[in-house]
Backbone:
């Protein structure tokens, strides 16, 4: 092999590794489902492509769909609308990575705040209203804040219904926990 | 010029750019008006009110409407990458935007020889993008909270949602451990302003100051208090304050504005932004 080609080959893997950064993989049951998912997501403007799943997570279908992880919530919603139920969604640069599923709570007396990763939701215990949403960095967070703040947590659409991003995904986790906390209280009146 | 870049939560709003002011409780750019809320609008409004109090030119705001699908965020990245050299800002602050590795790389590549004359601040989605790109060190200042600090400390995570449980579960008082990890892995810029119950000012991995007074616990729950901090910081650097000094002053001013607003966890960020001029007077930055 010529020296130039050997140098080129030595340097090449870095680009390949970099291309995995921030990418996720949707694992579906069958090739036909993966093809359907790829076509549908593309039609909605998502940057996706069909790829072979790595052997360690191959669970049936030998075609998976690669997407930008940050779009996870919007992608999941579209898959649900298309009646596609992924076996798993994983981060491509570390197959063991999953979104955080733990929350932290803080009591402010009349209010409580739930934190999930970078997202916080604060609820009035007496009225059951969402009084503030804080944190995040994706554009749907301010949008969801406008839709949710000032409304009763038992009556609003969950962030999952209108969000697209991983920030909204974490807001959903915080919202779920806060909803559970309110629901376990006495019925809210007034 | 103080240039500020970020999305606003409007589905159909096309890209807008121009001088922006904060008047009568609203952010104004030409015919466009919006009441500040969580996100970019609170950040820009805070910068506007600080600039006005310090007799500085109003910020130049570049924005587009994005509710999360990321389409107009892409336009914003492209516009900034194409126009940055022409705009020639001395301070560039990037904020809520869909994290996009290619978009952020394009912006950082577009600066080139102008880089040394420009202070670059990244918060929110722009900070996530810079870290995910592996280009955190190309930025001058990040302004993370404790949850975002865990993200910077985790070399594998490409978004705060993918932070290792262990790092998220660290007590907020252990934020120094996260700061050290972020610098060890090259995922922090020269300066960090870590906001929380205690604000940490960090330079090259060393905590150079902490601010914990006045202590207003409700501010943690109020959407936009981190955004107002970034806005004040940007304006102070634009006004000529050195980066570390500006971080210390901004942290104090933001806390004092919070104290003056007498907030509870249900308070809106506008109430705090309106108190920034009084807070500037209290720290004797203006009369």
Residues:
């Amino acid at each position: 092999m010529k020296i130039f080609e050997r140098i080129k080959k030595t340097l090449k893997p870095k680009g390949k590794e970099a291309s995995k950064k921030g990418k996720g993989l949707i694992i579906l049951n069958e090739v036909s489902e993966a093809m359907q998912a790829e076509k549908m997501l593309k039609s909605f403007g998502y940057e996706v492509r069909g790829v072979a799943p790595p052997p360690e997570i191959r669970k049936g279908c030998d075609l998976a769909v690669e997407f930008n992880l940050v779009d996870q919530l919007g992608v999941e919603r579209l898959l649900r609308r298309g009646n596609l139920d992924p076996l798993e969604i994983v981060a491509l640069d570390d197959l063991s990575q999953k979104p955080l599923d733990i929350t932290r709570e803080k009591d402010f007396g009349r209010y409580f705040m739930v934190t999930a990763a970078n997202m916080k939701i604060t609820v009035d215990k007496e009225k059951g209203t969402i009084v503030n949403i804080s944190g995040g960095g994706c554009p749907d967070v301010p949008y969801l804040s406008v839709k949710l703040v000032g409304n009763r947590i038992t009556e609003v659409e969950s962030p999952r219904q209108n969000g697209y991003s991983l920030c909204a995904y974490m807001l959903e986790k915080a919202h779920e926990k806060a909803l559970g906390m309110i629901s376990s209280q006495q019925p809210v009146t007034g | 010029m103080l240039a500020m870049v970020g999305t606003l939560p409007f589905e159909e709003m096309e890209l807008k750019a121009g001088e922006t002011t904060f008047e009568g409780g609203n952010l104004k750019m030409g015919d466009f008006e919006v009441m500040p809320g969580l996100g970019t609008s609170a950040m820009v409004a805070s910068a506007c009110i600080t600039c006005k109090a310090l007799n500085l030119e109003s910020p130049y705001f570049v924005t587009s409407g994005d509710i999360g699908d990321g389409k107009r965020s892409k336009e914003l990245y492209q516009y900034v990458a194409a126009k940055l050299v022409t705009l020639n800002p001395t301070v560039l602050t990037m904020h809520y935007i869909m994290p996009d590795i290619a978009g952020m790389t394009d912006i950082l590549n577009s600066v080139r020889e102008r880089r040394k004359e420009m202070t670059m601040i990244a918060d929110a989605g722009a900070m996530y993008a810079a870290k995910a790109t592996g280009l955190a060190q190309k930025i001058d200042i990040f302004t993370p909270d404790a949850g975002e600090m865990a993200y910077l400390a985790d070399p594998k995570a490409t978004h705060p949602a993918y932070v290792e449980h262990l790092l998220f579960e660290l007590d907020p008082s252990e934020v120094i451990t996260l700061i050290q990890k972020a610098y060890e892995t090259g995922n922090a810029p020269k300066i960090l302003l870590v906001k929380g119950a205690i604000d940490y000012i960090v330079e090259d991995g060393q905590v150079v100051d902490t601010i914990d007074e006045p202590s207003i616990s409700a501010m943690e729950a109020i959407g936009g208090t981190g955004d107002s901090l970034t806005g004040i910081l940007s304006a102070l650097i634009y006004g000529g304050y050195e980066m570390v000094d500006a971080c210390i002053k901004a942290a104090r001013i933001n806390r004092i504005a919070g104290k003056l607003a007498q907030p509870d966890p249900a308070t809106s960020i506008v109430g705090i932004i309106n108190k920034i001029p009084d807070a500037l007077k209290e720290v004797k930055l203006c009369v």
User: Anything to note?
Assistant: Residues 2-145+222-282 of chain B form a domain with the UDP-N-acetylmuramoyl-L-alanine:D-glutamate ligase fold (CATH 3.40.1190.20).
